[in-house]
């Protein structure tokens, strides 16, 4: 059987750091509220770089860390809800920027679960023998969609990108199992970039709203119910012993959500990696940024087995058991 081995990681976040105190200068908030409700202390905002720029910088880092040649890349998948354009896809722009002329490139949209969904698609191409490798990136410049008058959302999000290279192998490693799901009935709890169906021949509808809108309580409830269920199903379906989980990388939305997930799964907090204090919620980028950071800091090593788990708009969720 063919498996998809994670052979390199990479990440890129913009240089501009915005602290909670900086946020409190433009909106009615304060460091104590943001820290105690979310665990976020800082976020990085774009200083002009768009989503394709930070995705391409990430792809370059993955290439450097792997030694693969751009012309040998088979697929590029970018997960994003903040693309530069509706079309071309961010993945096609990345393909051009890095000179990966032989790659098939396309985007995937599953919000904060997007990296997991993208990895799942790439894994299938590899497991079915269609392609031998894939670069999967989560990249977001969410700051361009924030309503800086809405203190309930603008303090939570940040910009950044992260990704991985996966390659075909006969060894049982990489993506071992997955559990994905969606609940479109609850989709209106978190929306962004609404464009009405207006044209020259119908009554002009001016309700376009490019900003992120969120019912924070509803998302909190959803995350604390769906993620433990998803991880439980993932591990139980493959009879994996919870005590053998070396690490968990949850979507970096909120420290309190992570604490509840840890309690419900009875997996201790010291196995959960968190860096939302530095980056805020970077949606599809949060899991690969964290994974890359853990690899760079030597926190995870070859042979470790862990869970990556995301949740977000759609609503969507997804968990994977991965061996490094
Ligand atoms: N600063 C100060 N006060 C604030 C702020 C702020 N930034 N934002 C809201 N408040 C106030 C509210 O106005 C409210 O005041 P009131 O009681 O006088 O009306 C009070 O704080 C409590 O507001 P709540 O919304 O009830 O606060 P809650 O404890 O629910 O925390 C939060 C809000 C942090 C958004 C929480 O609901 C949450 O984390 N939800 C999940 C969000 C999430 O994970 N989103 C991302 C997932 S999907 C994705 O990543 C795309």
If you had to describe this structure to a student in words, what would you say it looks like?
The chain is α/β, with parallel strands linked by helices. It folds into 2 domains: 168 residues, Thiolase/Chalcone synthase (Peroxisomal Thiolase, Chain A, domain 1, 3-Layer(aba) Sandwich), CATH 3.40.47.10; 142 residues, Peroxisomal Thiolase, Chain A, domain 1, CATH 3.40.47.10. It is built from 10 helices and 13 strands. The structure holds acetyl coenzyme *A (ACO). Acetyl coenzyme *A (ACO) binds next to helix 2, helix 6 and helix 7.
Please state the CA-atom Rg, rounded to the nearest Å: 19 Å
What is the total domain count?
Answer: 2
Q: Which range best describes the helical content: under 10%, 10-25%, 25-40%, 40-55%, 55-70% or over 70%?
A: 25-40%
Q: Bound compounds, please?
A: acetyl coenzyme *A
Tell the overall outline. globular
